Amino acid sequence: MPAMTPMDAPEGAGAPAEAVAPLLRGLAVLRRLTEADGTLSLSDLERATGLARSTVDRITATLARMGYVRLDNRDVTLAPRLMELGNAYLAALRLPALLDARADALADELDESVSLAVGDRDGIRFIHQATRRRAMSLSFRIGDLLPAERTAPGPLFAAEWTDADWHHWRARRAADPHDHAFPAVPPTGRPTPDTDFERRTERAAAEGWALDDQLIEPGLVAVSVPVRDPRTGRVACVASVVSHTSRHTAEGLRESLLPRLRSAVAGMEHDLRTAPPPLPGAAPSGLAGWTGASKQELGREFVESLARGLTVLTAFGEGRAELTLTEVAKATGLARATARRALITYEHAGLVVPTPGRAFALTPRVLSLGFPPLSRTSLPQIAQPHLAALADRVRESAALAVLSDTAAGPGAEIQYTARVTPSRVMSVDIAVGTRQPAYATALGRVLLAGRAEPDRVLGDLRPLTPRTITDPAELTRELARVRAQGYALTDEELEEGLRSIAVPLRDGTGRVVAGVNVAMHAARRSLRECVEDILPELCETASRIEADLRVAGRFRRVPPT
C-alpha cells in the first residue's frame, strides 16, 4: 500500500465534527480499491483501510447495491457504474467534450500519444488520452495522478502556483521523496533537488512550453503546451505529445513536433472562445427515495448516509459546474442538512471546493474514485458479469460477439469476444475468439440488421445445414424482420441441433456495436419457449450492459474487443 502524504492523509484525520463518518469510510474503500487496480479481497480491504471487517462488509454491500462494486465470493471489484462520479466532474469541466476531437486528430496526424491534463494541487491528473498502440506505448489512464515535478505539464501549472502551493509541494516532497504515494508512476530512486523543478518552472513560464526528458522512466519523453482559459488567461489544461526515445529525443520532440502541438493548442483555445454556454443537463431524480427504499429493504446492511452522500457528487454536471447548497439539495431530493454535511465531508476530503457566490465545485480528485482502472475497461469486461448472471438464470450458454473484417469482406463474420457456459452434461461451448459466418447466426443477423443495407456484407451464402438461408433476397427480408422486431432467432442454420436467439447492444449514440445471445440444443427448448422464456431475460441483460456502456463510454471510446 502506498505511503500516505499530507495530500493523501487518512480520510477521517482531522475531520470536522459535522463530517459524515460513513461517507469518509466509503471514500477510503473506493480509494484503496482504485490503488489496487480495481480488485481486493474483503480481508485485504480490511487491512488496507484499517476498518473493522463488519464495517467493510456493510460498506461494500451498500456500494454493490448502488452498482459501484461487484461482490464475487470474497473479492470486491469496481464496477463501471462508479464512473458516473468521475463523469460528473468531466461533464462540469467541459474540457474533454470541447477539446478531445482536436487531441485525437493530433495523435492521428503525428502517430504519437496525446494527452490532456489538469492541475491537481501539486500534481497533474489526466482528463483525456489518445494513445497509440505499440509495443512501447503509453500506459497512463484517465484520472491517473502524477507528481508535477516529474512531468512536462507540471512546470506549466507550477508557474501559476501561490506561495502556499509551493509550501505544500515542498512538504509533500519531504514526506515522500520517492513518490510512493503516486501508484501511476514508478518510485524514483534518486530524487532531484527542489531547485531543479523551480528552474524548470521559471523556464516554462518564460517560454510557454515544457519538456519531460525521461523524468518518469527511462525512454519516455514529452513536450507540453498550456491551453489557456479565454475568460481568465490562466491555464485551463495542458496538452502533451508523448513519445519514446526510440522515435524521438526530447530535443527532437521539441524541434519537430512542438510547432504542430502549438497549432493544435491554438485551435483548442479558439474552440473554448467560441463554445456556446453549456445548457444545464437533467439533474438526477428520485435518489433520496431510492436510498430510503433500499434501507427499508436491506436494513442494517445498507449504509444510507454513505449512499446519500455519494449521490451529492452526481448533482454536478454539464451546466451545473457550480451549485449552491440549495441547488444540491433540490437536485438530489435530500434535506438541506443532509446535503450540507455531505458537502462539508467532501470539502475535507478535497473532492469539492467552495466558489464565489456561496457555491461549490468538484475538484479533479473526484477522478481518484475508481476512474483510472475503469477507464481501460473493454466491452467484453463490461459484459462478462452480466452474461454470467444470464447463463445462471436460464441455464444455457450466453455470449457477446462483434462483426469482424475477414477475407470475405468487412463484417462478413462474427467474432466471439465473451462467453459463459453453464455446467451441464451437454452445452454449447464456443471459445472466445472463434469466428463464424454472420449470415447463418442469430448474433450475426442482429449485427447485420443494425447496418444500413448498402453497408452490409453478406459473404458467400453457403448451405451449412439444410435449414440455412442462402437466397440473398430471402436473407434481406429476414434482416428487415430482425430490425423491426429487435431480435433474431435461428433454428439449426449454423449447425444441426443448435438453436440461438440474439439481441443487439447499442452504445450511447444508439449505434449497434455488438450482439448478445443465448444458445442451446434444439431439444431443450422450442422456438416459442425461446421467445417467451429466454428473450425477456436476454433483453434485460442487454439493457444492463448498455447502461454500463453508456456510463463507461461517455468520455472515452470503449474497446469492442
Structure description:
The chain is α+β, with helices and mostly antiparallel strands. The chain contains 18 helices and 18 strands. The chain has helices spanning 21-35, 42-49, 53-65, 83-93, 95-110, 153-158, 163-175, 194-207, 250-274, 287-298, 304-313, 325-332, 336-349, 371-374, 379-394, 442-449, 472-485, 527-552; strands spanning 39-41, 69-72, 75-78, 113-120, 123-130, 145-147, 210-213, 220-228, 235-244, 322-324, 352-355, 359-362, 397-406, 409-420, 435-437, 488-491, 498-506, 512-521. The chain has a six-stranded antiparallel sheet with strand order 6-5-4-9-8-7. Strand 16 (488-491) and strand 17 form a beta hairpin. It starts with 20 loop residues before the first helix and ends in a 9-residue tail after the last helix.
Ordered list of secondary-structure elements with their pairings:
Elements: H1 21-35, E1 39-41, H2 42-49, H3 53-65, E2 69-72, E3 75-78, H4 83-93, H5 95-110, E4 113-120, E5 123-130, E6 145-147, H6 153-158, H7 163-175, H8 194-207, E7 210-213, E8 220-228, E9 235-244, H9 250-274, H10 287-298, H11 304-313, E10 322-324, H12 325-332, H13 336-349, E11 352-355, E12 359-362, H14 371-374, H15 379-394, E13 397-406, E14 409-420, E15 435-437, H16 442-449, H17 472-485, E16 488-491, E17 498-506, E18 512-521, H18 527-552
Antiparallel strand pairs: 1-3, 2-3, 4-5, 4-9, 5-6, 7-8, 8-9, 10-12, 11-12, 13-14, 13-18, 14-15, 16-17, 17-18
Helix pairs in contact: 1-3, 1-11, 5-9, 10-11, 11-13, 12-13, 15-18, 16-17
